[in-house]
Amino acid sequence: MDAVDALNEIAFWLERELAPTFKIQAFRKAAGIIAGLAPEDLAARAADGRLRRTKGIGDRTYQVIREALDGGVPEYLGGLRSRGAQPLVPGGHELLASLRGDLHSHSDWSDGGSPIEAMVGAARLLGREYLALTDHSPNLKIANGLSAERLAEQLEIVAEINARNDGGFRLLRGIEADILEDGSLDQTPEILDQLDIVVASVHSKLRADKRTMTRRMLGAIADPHMNVLGHCTGRLIQGGRGTRPPSEFDARKVFAACAEHNVAVEINARPERQDPPGALIEVALDAGCLFSIDSDAHAPGQLDFLQYGAERAERNGVPVERIVTSWSLDRLLEWAASRR
Q1: Is the peptide bond before 20 cis (omega within 30 degrees of 0)?
Q2: CB-based burial of residue 9 (10 Å sphere; 0-12 exposed, 13-18 middle, 19+ buried)?
Q3: SS3 assignment for 68-98
Q4: What CA–CA distance (Å, rounded) separates 116 from 127?
Q5: What's the rounded Cα separation, in Å, for the pair 134 and 171?
Q6: Distance of CA 124 to CAs 102, 120, 131, 235, Å?
Q7: What is the side-by-side strand order in the sheet with 170-178?
């Protein structure tokens, strides 16, 4: 098989398994090093030893390249494929099969680790019909948030990608906007008007008192540009970033506002977030909310995290008809534009 494809696929499966970042990056870096080489040049470098001496090519990546050049599936990739054939979670499979898209993902334009094209390729591989590209907004400087000018540039790239596609997949124009302390969204209304999907999340002052946080969230939900309330508690329950307790807010008021304004509550599928907790999903259900099961992927392999979200939604009794990411593209876009 193609050596570049083999290296990138290995990185995909490692991301899905939550492997250490340095390990994933080693395979992506090696893929980038050999991507510009003609097949005969790559084969010659592998045969005469130059490839093994190339900076950025280690023992494992060299072995993968040699086995791919020999015409077979590299042994390391074969093992990952076998493990990847097993589901990440025991339940939620029927609901997962009903999901058509994902409204929360990041690229290397903000704090993601891969180019937009790599995210699109993985989404198509997983059978998604649409994916919203929702890089961060400018207030989140630590995540290289997009200014209005950079977002405008990104929208041109999204248009080019969609123009090249065969109609079976759509990359949606989006953003994960910060909910600022006054409840406003961190991007200009003029550019928000150009987007298909706006996810809005709180990323700062997460330990504010209950009244302050409630007022902040209600202000954002009232904004007609907002479509999805992202990871509403901000909690972290595991992972390399440590743990963080959930923010405090009046869930009944916030979810009632989401239902009133036709804003979906995100079921964030990242294993370190699992946000909102089951008790809050129940409150949102009782309030009549819509839901969006999203991966919040920051790398191609993480797009398969939808499995975790589907399992949690099914376990908490969320009806598929209330999950916007199970809707057709036309219905989804009509819903997203209905408030503007």
Answers
A1: no
A2: buried
A3: HHCCCCCHHHHHHHHHHCCCCCCCCHHHHHH
A4: 17
A5: 10
A6: 12, 6, 9, 30
A7: 101-102, 130-133, 170-178, 197-201, 228-229, 264-268, 291-294
Q: Do 186 and 227 contact (CB within 8 A), yes or no?
A: no
What is the rounded distance in angstroms from the CA atom of residue 87 to the CA atom of residue 105?
21
The encoded tokens of residue 92 equal 């939620």
CA distance 293 to 101: 9
pLDDT of residue 107: 96
Quick one: tokens of 199? Answer: 């996810």
Residue with tokens 């929702």: 134
In this structure, which amino acid lies at residue 189? P
Which residues of the chain have a pLDDT value below 70?
Answer: none
Which tokens sit at 174?
A: 């989006």
